[in-house]
Structures are given as C-alpha cells and as structure tokens.
C-alpha cells in the first residue's frame, strides 16, 4: 500500500480505538442503567456495535501489520508501476483522466485511485508515456494513451 494509504488506515484505527470505542462504552452504560438487560434493545444494539467496532480494529491492525508500505516519491522509473500517478487521454471521448495505482484497501475511483487488481491498473502496469492501453470495461473495449507518469 502507499504511504498515504497506510496513514489513512492508521487514522481510522486511532478513531475506532479512541473516540468511537469510548462513545460505544458510554452508550452501553446508559442502556445498562435502564434496567432489565434481557429486553433492552438499546443495550443489545450497542453490544453488537461494540463487536463490529472491535472486528474492524482487528482487521485494520492485521492489514497494517502485513502491509508493505511504499512511498511513491522514492520511485524512479519511466514505466507505470505501483504508486504511479498517470494522466491518460481517453481516445474514444478525447477527455483526460488521472489515476493513481494503489493497493486494494485504498482504492477510491471517485478520487482517482484505482486498485492494482483493477482491469485498468493491470492494463497500465509496465507501459510508458505515449503507449496506448486497451482496457476491457463493462461498457466495452476502451483505449487510452499514456500522457504523463508521475511518482509523488
């Protein structure tokens, strides 16, 4: 995963372990004060939320422990590899798009971050500026030309 992706996961983990965990504990305490726990829906919902929060914490801790963090700014190649930010021209529409090739857990197409396992990222890997990329998309075959490759 990229350095930025790892930092985002660390921030999420800190929120889940701190603020969110404390909020859930307060909710459980308030629900417990209402009396009979066997018929207390608020209590059961809060305990379920607590279990889900703890599951997310374990999952994020595991991902961070196993992650190989890469700082794209340290990469110096002329080809597209993991971490590259790539400006492409959509040859079908004549529009320009920018994507960064990132890890699965940090992919966010709305912010131009595509997973290394996505069809477009797989098609881009190894290409250089000026190369044409053919991508099989749900809407059919798309052609892109690589305009610029950056590592930032």
Automatic annotation (TrEMBL):
Gene name tied to this protein: greA
Keyword Transcription regulation (UniProt): yes
Domain (Transcription elongation factor GreA/GreB N-terminal) ranges: 1-69
InterPro entries attached to this UniProt entry: GreA/GreB_C_sf (IPR036953), TF_GreA/GreB_CS (IPR018151), Tscrpt_elong_fac_GreA (IPR006359), Tscrpt_elong_fac_GreA/B (IPR028624), Tscrpt_elong_fac_GreA/B_C (IPR001437), Tscrpt_elong_fac_GreA/B_fam (IPR023459), Tscrpt_elong_fac_GreA/B_N (IPR022691), Tscrpt_elong_fac_GreA/B_N_sf (IPR036805)
Assigned protein family: Belongs to the GreA/GreB family.
Species per Swiss-Prot/TrEMBL record: Mariprofundus ferrinatatus
Molecular function (Gene Ontology), one example: translation elongation factor activity
Record bears the keyword Transcription: yes
Protein's UniProt name: Transcription elongation factor GreA
């Amino acid at each position: 995963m990229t350095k930025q992706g790892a930092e985002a996961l660390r921030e999420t983990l800190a929120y889940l372990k701190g603020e969110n965990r404390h909020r859930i504990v307060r909710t459980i305490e308030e629900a417990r004060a209402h009396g009979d726990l066997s018929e207390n829906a608020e209590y059961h919902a809060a305990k379920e939320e607590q279990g889900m929060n703890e599951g997310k914490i374990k999952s994020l801790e595991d991902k961070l422990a196993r992650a190989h963090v890469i700082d794209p700014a340290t990469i110096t190649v002329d080809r597209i590899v993991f971490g590259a930010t790539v400006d492409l021209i959509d040859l079908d529409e004549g529009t320009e798009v920018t994507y960064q090739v990132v890890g699965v857990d940090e992919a966010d197409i709305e912010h131009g971050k595509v997973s290394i396992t996505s069809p477009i990222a797989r098609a881009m890997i190894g290409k250089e500026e000026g190369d044409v990329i053919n991508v099989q998309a749900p809407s059919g075959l798309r052609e892109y030309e690589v305009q610029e490759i950056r590592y930032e």
